[in-house]
Design brief:
About 70% of the residues lie in helices and about 5% in strands. With about 280 residues, the protein is mainly alpha-helical. Strands 1-2 form a two-stranded antiparallel ribbon. It contains nine helices and two strands; from the N terminus they run H-H-H-H-H-H-E-E-H-H-H. It is globular and about 65 Å long. It has one domain. It starts with a helix and ends in a 9-residue tail after the last helix. Keywords: Amino-acid transport, Auxin signaling pathway, Membrane, Symport, Transmembrane, Transmembrane helix, Transport. Its main location: membrane. It comes from Linum tenue. It is a multi-pass membrane protein.
Length: about 280
């Protein structure tokens, strides 16, 4: 799905640049301060693209041997990160060439392109399928944590711990198990997050803020610290110091991205209208 809509956005951007005869660039309508804040926010958007670590262990846990799960995941991570980097850099650079500083937050539905309509519809269907699937994957660790914690805290409450068997009529006795707490809690979670997404429709700003908040602690700090502990590097060895320096640089990146996201959120709130897209 991602490759399909990325190809569409990239192709349409190339066509727009070719039709205009030249690439767009910086303009005088944006001050230097605004340009700097937008760069910081863009860093947060990039960081969000690399927050796969939140589901890395969940995915690895579902793999079968052989080859070993860690070897499979290492190759998948390398290929996934490489593909993501190539596509997003191309889309970012060519999209900027097509629109300059007036590039919409979403090239496919943010007043960027209007024709051909069928191609845009295909791309947006791919976006919807991608995000629906991603929502499920990213929500699973949250669901698991809450449900496990509740079972441990209230083991005597049947509403929380008991699964009920429900038979589907006219399907030859086919049945499935339902836990009423799981059904209620997950439905409420989806409803609340959906309403919040509609109520605060600052697409790029929110993505940037989430990316800034999760990038350093989950994608950099924890993996680096676990690797240092597992490899048993001496405290002031070259390898340990290099990894710590990398972690510190990524911390600065997250702080800069967070600052840009907060400033962008403040600016968006000045023209905020509930349930209206402000991409």
């Amino acid at each position: 799905m991602s490759i399909t809509y990325s190809f569409n956005g990239l192709g349409l951007s190339i066509v727009k640049v070719a039709a205009g005869g030249e690439a767009s660039g910086t303009s005088t309508t944006v001050s230097e301060a605004q340009r700097l804040w937008r760069i910081f926010q863009a860093i947060g958007d990039i960081a969000f693209a690399y927050t796969y670590s939140t589901v890395l262990i969940e995915i690895q846990d579902t793999l079968k041997s052989s080859p070993a799960e860690n070897k499979t995941m290492k190759r998948a991570s390398f290929e996934g990160i490489s593909t993501t980097t190539i596509f997003y850099l191309l889309c970012g650079c060519v999209g900027y060439a097509a629109f300059g500083e007036h590039a919409p937050g979403d090239l496919l539905s943010g007043s960027g392109f209007y024709q051909p309509l069928w191609l845009l519809n295909v791309a947006n269907v791919c976006v919807a399928i991608h995000l629906i699937g991603a929502y499920q994957v990213f929500a699973q660790p949250i669901f698991s944590f809450v449900e496990t914690s509740c079972r441990q805290r209230w083991p005597e409450v049947k509403f929380v711990t008991t699964d009920h068997q429900i038979t589907i009529p006219f399907l030859g006795g086919t049945s499935f198990h339902v836990n009423w707490f799981r059904l209620t809690w997950r439905s409420a979670y989806v409803a609340v997050t959906t309403v919040l997404a509609m109520l605060l429709p600052f697409f790029n700003v929110i993505l940037s803020l989430i990316g800034a908040a999760s990038f350093w602690p989950l994608t950099v700090y924890l993996p680096v610290e676990m690797y240092i502990a597992r490899a048993k590097f001496p405290k002031f060895s070259v390898s340990s110091m290099c990894l710590q320096a990398l972690s510190f640089i990524c911390l600065l990146v997250s702080l800069v991205a967070a600052a840009g996201s907060v400033e962008g959120l403040i600016q968006s709130l000045k023209t905020y209208h509930p349930f209206k897209n402000e991409a």
